[in-house]
Amino acid sequence: MSDTPGIVITGASGRMGQMLIGQVSASDRVHLAGAVERAGHAWVGQDIGVAMGGAAIGVFVTDDPAAAMKDAQAVIDFTAPEATLAFAKVAAAAGVVHVIGTTGMSDAQITGLDAPSKQTVIVRAGNMSLGVNLLTQLTKRVAAALDADFDIEVIEAHHNQKVDAPSGTALMLGEAAAEGRGVALADVSDRGRDGITGARKRGDIGFTAIRGGDIVGEHDVMFAAAGERIILRHIASDRAVFARGAIKAALWGQGKPAGAYDMLDVLGLND
């Protein structure tokens, strides 16, 4: 039995699930304690190494998250909103750190994490990379320094299989910009433009979503005024950056008091 923290990966067959399994398996700081898939999935009952096309590693895919988390210390969850809410209850009952990279959660679904966060550590972020979280802080500071003569547009691009828009990262950047300006994003968000829309409203924060090919993740925050533009940019070329950030969050959460945290807490940037 390894003396490193055991990590359970949900959505094991997914794009991020497989990336997480590979990164956890290769790490000397954590070990893979479980792999979870939905009931009826073809991978359930298989050794996860074999299911992924490699050698057996002795960890079998299960559709029982409670059994998978029983002897684990953390669960990393990049699945879907409803699944994440269900996993949160199981993680809280098991007392394991729950790292959430799931995007597309509604305000009501995020509120649904309040009760589990009173029982265990929940680290939730729209993006787990160091670079994006630094970009978030920069966005907040630039927005605070510039007035509404500078229009703010968040432009994001992802692969053609992504199911939510704007991306969780784009919304995180939009929230940062709104916070910098001292307004609520819900009051200034402009997400839909089609047909005769009229002139842009002063102070709005706009969102543009691009979907195509195998783009991992690109985010620009543009501050545009008459005669000048400032563009802050982050490009992710490898999903491993998200997996490494999630593992960092799982390790950080060990021994922390129950509560709701984000990657800025993990990185010591929440001042």
Automatic annotation (TrEMBL):
UniProt xrefs under InterPro entries: DapB_C, DapB_N, DapB_N_CS, DHDPR_bac, NAD(P)-bd_dom_sf
Coiled coil regions in record: none
Keyword Glycosyltransferase part of the UniProt annotation: no
PROSITE patterns membership: DAPB (PS01298)
Binding site for NADP(+): 38
Keywords noted in UniProt: Amino-acid biosynthesis, Cytoplasm, Diaminopimelate biosynthesis, Lysine biosynthesis, NAD, NADP, Oxidoreductase
Binding site for NAD(+): 11-16, 37, 101-103, 125-128
Annotated (S)-2,3,4,5-tetrahydrodipicolinate binding sites: 159, 168-169
SUPFAM superfamilies assigned: Glyceraldehyde-3-phosphate dehydrogenase-like, C-terminal domain, NAD(P)-binding Rossmann-fold domains
Catalyzed reactions per annotation: (S)-2,3,4,5-tetrahydrodipicolinate + NAD(+) + H2O = (2S,4S)-4-hydroxy-2,3,4,5-tetrahydrodipicolinate + NADH + H(+); (S)-2,3,4,5-tetrahydrodipicolinate + NADP(+) + H2O = (2S,4S)-4-hydroxy-2,3,4,5-tetrahydrodipicolinate + NADPH + H(+)
Active site: 158, 162
Cellular component GO terms held in the UniProt record: cytosol
Localization per record: Cytoplasm
Enzyme class: oxidoreductase
Alphabetized Pfam families for the sequence: DapB_C (PF05173), DapB_N (PF01113)
GO biological process: diaminopimelate biosynthetic process; lysine biosynthetic process via diaminopimelate
Major localisation: cytoplasm
Domain Dihydrodipicolinate reductase C-terminal residue range list: 131-267
E.C. code: 1.17.1.8
Domain Dihydrodipicolinate reductase N-terminal intervals: 7-128
Function: Catalyzes the conversion of 4-hydroxy-tetrahydrodipicolinate (HTPA) to tetrahydrodipicolinate.
Family: Belongs to the DapB family.
NCBIfam families assigned: dapB (TIGR00036)
Complex and partners: Homotetramer.
UniProt protein name: 4-hydroxy-tetrahydrodipicolinate reductase
Organism whose genome encodes this protein: Sulfitobacter litoralis
Upper taxonomic lineage: Bacteria, Pseudomonadati, Pseudomonadota, Alphaproteobacteria, Rhodobacterales
